[in-house]
Design a protein that fits this description.
Elements (H helix, E strand, L loop, with lengths): L1 E5 L3 H14 L4 E6 L2 H10 L5 E5 L1 E2 L2 E2 L13 E5 L5 H6 L2 E6 L4 H13 L11 H10 L7 E6 L2 E6 L3 E7 L2 E6 L5 E4 L3 H8 L5 E3 L4 E4 L3 E7 L2 E6 L7 E3 L4 H8 L2
């Protein structure tokens, strides 16, 4: 059996690969791929994939979009943190639906289900009309949680627990509200700001910082500057860039 993993979070992809090999060492794993376009190119060139493990939210859009660009007859196991997608995703071209964090028992059941299916019983490819219906039905495009590593453990941090995010060089980190723990995230601040974080809850106050509205304790006015205060002390302080002050005030005043 050969499977393809399409997942834009490195830790989630690694965890899925480990569980697949725990189930059956002989399964060949391709990927992970992390974009719609890379997956389209791969599927156009390879016809020997038995199962496609497909995250719904990818780095460049919703994975349903790939079915508009390539005829994919490969059975799909959808994986995602967005449980509101389950009913739609499960109906179309899917042998199962796994909610993150994926549990080994659920993965095992999905693979066993695939083995039991006769070729005639396997789901039909998605039509263009159904793809458009799926894309139109996605009402909550923003991330609900982040997969992070703590020692030899893989954890999920809900977005509600984030105080702020910051960048050092090319690496982005999240900082939790209660414990001030820092975790690396598999996205740049640009990706987080542009389409992964809800702009009603998160604001990019500077080139290096994004803050969560519920983490802000107060905003102090300094000469021509604003400092964002959260419950725990920040080092360095969270300053709002001068060019963002007006927009930041409008965001606070919604």
């Amino acid at each position: 059996m050969k499977v393809l993993i399409v997942e834009d979070e490195q830790l989630a992809a690694e965890r899925l690969e480990e569980m697949i090999h725990s189930y059956d060492r002989s399964i060949a794993i391709e990927g992970p791929l992390d974009t719609v376009q890379d997956t389209v190119r791969y599927l156009r060139e390879h016809r020997d994939i038995d199962i496609l493990f497909l995250d719904i939210q990818l780095a460049d859009g919703k994975s349903f979009e790939l079915f508009e660009q390539v005829a994919c007859e490969t059975p799909v196991v959808f994986t995602t943190a967005y449980d509101q997608y389950s009913l739609k995703a499960f109906k179309y071209n899917s042998i199962d639906y796994l909610l993150k964090p994926v549990r080994f028992d659920d993965l095992q059941q999905a693979l066993e289900k695939f083995k039991r299916l006769n070729p005639a019983e396997r789901p039909a490819p998605l039509s263009k009309e159904l793809v458009q219906e799926l894309l139109a039905s996605l009402q909550s495009p923003y991330k609900q949680r982040f997969l992070v590593r703590q020692g030899n453990k893989i954890l999920y941090v809900p977005v509600e627990d984030i105080a702020y995010l910051f960048a050092e060089g090319k690496i982005a980190y999240l900082v939790t509200k209660e414990t001030q723990r820092q975790y690396i995230v598999d996205h740049t601040l640009e990706e987080l700001e542009s389409h992964l974080l809800d702009p009603a809850r998160f604001f990019r106050i500077s080139r290096k910082h994004i803050v969560h509205i519920q983490a802000i304790k107060e905003v102090q006015t300094q000469p021509q500057r604003l400092e964002v205060k959260i419950a725990q002390p920040c080092d360095p302080p969270l300053w709002v860039s001068r060019e963002k002050i007006t927009e930041f005030k409008r965001w606070l005043n919604r």
